[in-house]
Each structure stands twice: as C-alpha cells, then as structure tokens.
Amino acid sequence: MVKTPCISLRRGRGGLTKVVLRHVSGARAEIYPHGAHLTAWRAAYSDECLFLSRRSVFSKNQPIRGGIPVVFPQFGDGPLPKHGFARQSVWKLTRSAINRNGDLTLVLGLSDNAATRALWPHAFELEFVITLGADCLEMRLTIRNPGNKPLSCQAALHTYLRVGDITQTALSGLQGTVYRDFLPPYGKALEKRCSIKCCGETDRVYLCAPNRLQLHDGANRRKILIDKQNMPDIVLWNPWIAKSRRLADLENSAWQNMICVETGRLHKPLLLRPGASWMGRTLLKTQAALT
Length: 291
Ligand code: TA6
Known about the structure:
eight-stranded antiparallel sheet, 21 strands, binds 6-O-phosphono-beta-D-tagatofuranose, single chain, mainly beta
C-alpha cells in the first residue's frame, strides 16, 4: 500500500517530543530534539536498523542510550561531560521538507548558549541535516565558528547498529588501517583482518579509515553500507558481557544485538578559524544479504 509521506511531531518516551519521518516507501525514522538524537530508522521492507536500549532514560538530564548520539565538542572523557554536551542539549527544529524525489529532510540546529558557555567558553553553530530515503539515511553535521577566535573541537556520530547476533556480524573495509586501542594493552596496531568480528569487549578508533565500510549482519540476512566523507576516523565499540552489566541504562544482553560503528573527526581535532566551517557526512544504506 503506498503510504503518504509525512513529517509529524509526537509525544515520545519520557514525555519528550519526537519527530517521526515516514517515507512513501514505508521507510521510517524518529528523531528527538533532545540531542538531535536519531532513535529509530528502518528502510522500506526492513526491520529496525538502529539499536535502542530498552533501559534508556528519556529525560532532559541524560543522553539517550542507543540510536545515533551526536558527539560534540569532545569525544570520550575529558573536561566536559563525556562525549560533550550536544547529545544532552535541546536542539531547535529549523526546517523540514518533503523533497521532489520523495525523500524527507529534517534540519536541527544548536548554537552556544549560557549553559554551553558555562561549560565551554566558545561560540559555535551546529546544523544537523537528516535525510531519509527508501533504503538509506543520510546525516550531515556542520560546525561553524561564528566567533573571533579559533575553535578546536571533536565531532562524531556515535551510531548504534542493531544486529541479529554479534557472533554472526562482521565489519569489512578496515584492513590495513592503523587503530588505537582504548582497552589494554592500549597502543596502536595495524588491522590485518579483511573482516572483523567482535569476540569480546571492543573499543578502538581506526585512524584515517577508508570511506566505505560494510557491516554484514548474518542473522538478519542484511548488510549495512557505511559511506562517509570528511569524517576520517571510525570507532568500533561493543561493550560485551561485563560492561553491558555495568551500564545501568543498557540491558545485560545488549552486547549480543548491537555494534557501534562511529564516524567522526577525533584523532586530529578540528581547528576552525573565525568564520570557518566544517561539514562531515555519513550515509547508511541497507541491502538484503543472501546469507
Ligand atoms: O565510543 C566508544 C565509547 O567511548 C566507549 O568507551 C563507551 O564508553 C561508549 O563510548 C559509550 O559511552 P557513553 O558515555 O554513551 O556511555
């Protein structure tokens, strides 16, 4: 049945507002202005592609667990809240459109304010453009420096992909890339594997990684193609058993059905001159897989 394309505001979990994008093909996405957080994405004729924790808290004071957190201006631990404050800020809904090709676009914005300046004394303007197609989800994150001094920051899309079974899941495209391990023995190493399977807690950043990766989700008989521009680094994370248990907002079994393949500018932080801007793009596309 052909559906009518629709962009609607709904009351989401925890009473937070969410925007629902419904494509004529049946593809669908959900975004909370809280963090400009994509919490759901399904392509036409596919089931849910993003992992969202059933235990996630939906409140103004905490980031949503799962989906696609927007990381800015800091990745990981540091002087700011972990992964920065963008994922805990309420973004403005600046524009939406049903495009001539039937794709749906939602634009969200976040600029510095008293709360962010109290944490990080810099002017900034962020724009997050989400476009939903029949079988793909495109995300464009733009950072502009409206201030009169250089702006140094990191940025990433911390994508939680939903998989049928982590033991039947493999990521390809990183062979020959140097990675830095966030777990012991730490340090750097060269990725020798053509196809990577998580067999334990995995937490590492691949530096200047190739722009096209492929996640094979064998249990769901699907592939997710990851196509990035201007986001050189890839973070691969699975909490595995012990860390899943330690994270209160993550169900104990989460490690079996999620893998984070994150795209960003992390290893070499951005340095934007006054008036300059940067744009990073990530496209996720689903394909059926025979096995
Ligand atoms: O991206 C990987 C990572 O930095 C892991 O170390 C893990 O902490 C994950 O992010 C989740 O971070 P969060 O702050 O959302 O719990």
